[in-house]
């Protein structure tokens, strides 16, 4: 059986599941923290069957990468905001007495010349040891978090993780894997993209790329363009140009058996707008399949609203309105490039991937081994 869908977490600061009624055994708990260019997010969870049960969570926009595009450095203000958020995470970890954890930082810390000074500051002031992970591992973790959403009919899979500072794309060939085994084959990628001598049916990673453009960095590239529609068009064109070297099967792939899974705040926000949700509901968003026409309708509505209207829209909000159009530009570029008119929405990402990877490596999830 494929792992069940975790029932929470993603772009919005919602717990994956409601808190457990009984106080969990600290020996069973795992923590996963994702410090990105724009947000700091953490989950604390315990294994439960073939998935996990979230005990506590944290999500805050810290804008760690603010100004990074121009200066190449993390600013003092952004580091201060981030350390304050990480102190809250450290308090939660201590409160639950969590011993097993992975606390990772991504694109902003990969690029900043003063990243290691920042890592030391976090260790000194927040008592946490951050680990800067490389793009391949970030892509791999995003892929395994989406495994429960992979259709058993999917033969070619494209997983897209739109972050604040980078966008990871992974193309996976599942055609040699028996249908019922396909989601489980995705989960096995936690051990690496290129597995040798595996006794299990293997998902083949055809190609992957980490584009150093996410919702924050792409926005910053075109911050000098005043016209909203022109800026959007330029961002979408520029992102597509950066995909030129990533086009496996581009000329021969048919729509049948092809699936794109998108994971990011952009994707879940577009889905919430499409559904007309006044309050975000993960159970309605995670796993939703949207057509390209539905996505285009939402994006056109965003353009009609303009910056002021997007700021007032409860599905977007003040924090995200500055980033939603750069994310939408990435999303539309992706749908132009590949032969599909549907996108599977994943309200899950790096944190869930970190939890799955830790738990599967420890053998504490049922329905294994993965």
Break the fold down into its secondary structure elements and pairings.
Elements: E1 30-35, E2 39-48, E3 51-61, H1 68-71, H2 76-96, E4 100-105, H3 107-111, H4 115-126, E5 131-132, H5 135-145, E6 156-162, E7 167-173, H6 182-187, E8 204-211, H7 215-221, H8 228-241, E9 258-263, H9 265-275, H10 282-285, E10 289-291, H11 292-312, H12 317-337, E11 342-346, H13 350-362
Parallel strand pairs: 1-4, 4-5, 6-9, 9-11
Antiparallel strand pairs: 1-2, 2-3, 6-7, 7-8, 10-11
Features:
single chain, 370 residues, alpha/beta, six-stranded mixed sheet, 41% helix, disordered N terminus
What can you tell me about this protein's structure?
The longest helix has 21 residues, at 76-96. By secondary structure, this protein is α/β, with parallel strands linked by helices. A hairpin with a 4-residue loop joins strand 6 and strand 7. The protein is 41% helix and 19% strand. The strands form two sheets. Strands 8-7-6-9-11-10 form a six-stranded mixed β-sheet, sandwiched between helices. The chain has a five-stranded mixed β-sheet with strand order 3-2-1-4-5. The protein contains 13 helices and eleven strands. Mean pLDDT is 87; it is low at 1-21. It has helices spanning 68-71, 76-96, 107-111, 115-126, 135-145, 182-187, 215-221, 228-241, 265-275, 282-285, 292-312, 317-337, 350-362; strands spanning 30-35, 39-48, 51-61, 100-105, 131-132, 156-162, 167-173, 204-211, 258-263, 289-291, 342-346. Helix 2 packs across helix 4 (115-126), helix 7 crosses helix 12 (317-337) and helix 9 crosses helix 12.
């Amino acid at each position: 059986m494929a792992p069940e869908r975790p029932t929470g977490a993603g772009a919005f600061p919602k717990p994956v599941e409601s808190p457990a009624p009984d106080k969990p055994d600290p020996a069973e708990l795992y923590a996963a923290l994702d410090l990105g260019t724009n947000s700091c997010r953490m989950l604390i969870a315990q294994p439960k069957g073939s998935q996990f049960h979230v005990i506590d969570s944290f999500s805050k926009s810290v804008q760690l990468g603010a100004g990074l595009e121009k200066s190449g450095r993390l600013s003092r203000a952004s580091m201060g905001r981030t350390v304050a958020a990480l102190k809250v995470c450290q308090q939660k970890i201590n409160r639950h007495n969590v011993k097993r954890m992975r606390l990772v930082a991504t694109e902003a810390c990969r690029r900043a010349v003063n990243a290691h000074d920042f890592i030391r500051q976090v260790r000194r002031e927040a008592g946490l040891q951050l680990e800067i992970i490389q793009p391949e591992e970030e892509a791999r973790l995003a892929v395994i978090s989406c495994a429960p959403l992979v259709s058993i009919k999917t033969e070619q899979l494209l997983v897209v993780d739109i972050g604040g500072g980078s966008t990871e794309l992974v193309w996976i060939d599942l055609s040699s894997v028996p249908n019922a085994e396909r989601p489980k084959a995705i989960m096995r990628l936690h051990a690496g993209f290129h597995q040798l001598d595996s006794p299990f049916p293997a998902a083949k990673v055809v190609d992957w790329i980490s584009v150093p453009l996410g919702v924050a960095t792409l926005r910053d590239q075109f911050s000098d363009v005043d016209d909203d529609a022109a800026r959007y068009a330029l961002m979408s064109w520029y992102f597509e140009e950066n995909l030129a070297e990533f086009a496996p099967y581009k000329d021969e792939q048919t729509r049948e058996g092809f699936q794109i899974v998108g994971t990011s705040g952009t994707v879940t926000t577009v889905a919430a707008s499409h559904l007309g949700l006044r309050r975000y509901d993960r159970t309605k968003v995670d796993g939703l399949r949207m057509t390209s026409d539905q996505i285009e309708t939402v994006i056109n509505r965003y353009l009609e609203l303009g910056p002021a209207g997007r700021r007032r829209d409860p599905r977007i909000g003040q924090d995200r309105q500055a980033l939603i159009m750069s994310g939408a530009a990435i999303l539309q570029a992706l749908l132009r490039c590949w032969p599909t008119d549907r996108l599977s929405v994943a309200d899950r990402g790096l944190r869930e991937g970190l939890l799955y990877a830790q738990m599967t490596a420890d053998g504490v999830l049922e329905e294994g081994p993965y």
